[in-house]
Amino acid sequence: QLQLVESGGGLVQPGGSLRLSCAASGFTLDYYAIGWFRQAPGKEREGVSCISSSGGNTNYADSVKGRFTISRDNAKNTVYLQMNSLKPDDTAVYYCARSRRRFCVSSPYEHDYWGQGTQVTVSS
């Protein structure tokens, strides 16, 4: 069964860090770009970051550039999102999703499999 499972979310104070993981099963990550998206209450889902199948190309939303780092370990079939200097505006449910392509695409509609999401709450 093809599946993506996120983990690593939680409650953190402003300025803190979290590392999210996206573990794939039922398929090999090597052939796909993976995107991270987030959705805050009352807001639309937005793209946060993406990494190409080889890991050679990464993209970030302007709001997280310099604070978040995406990486992948194809041997472990896992993609990571390291989040530093977290802000209250980063509070959201974070989802990872499989792109239909080897390269990054911004549209959620170009992603065919999604994880269940992990809650990130940044609050003092």
Describe the structure in your own words.
By secondary structure, the chain is an all-beta fold. The protein contains no helices and eleven strands. Strands 2, 4, 5, 6, 9, 10 and 11 form a seven-stranded mixed beta sheet that branches. A hairpin with a 4-residue loop joins β7 and β8.
List the helices and strands and how they pair.
Elements: E1 3-7, E2 10-12, E3 18-25, E4 34-39, E5 46-51, E6 58-60, E7 68-73, E8 78-83, E9 92-99, E10 111-114, E11 118-122
Parallel strand pairs: 2-11
Antiparallel strand pairs: 1-3, 3-8, 4-5, 4-9, 5-6, 7-8, 9-10, 9-11
Task: Using the alpha-carbon principal axes, give the shape.
Answer: globular
How large is the share of residues in beta strands?
over 45%
Number of strands: 11
Distance between the termini: 39 Å
Total DSSP helices:
0
How helix-rich are the residues, as a percent range? under 10%
Rg, alpha carbons: 13 Å
Question: Could you provide a short overview of the structure?
Answer:
This protein has no helices and eleven strands. It is an all-beta fold and 124 residues long. A hairpin with a 6-residue loop joins strand 5 and strand 6.
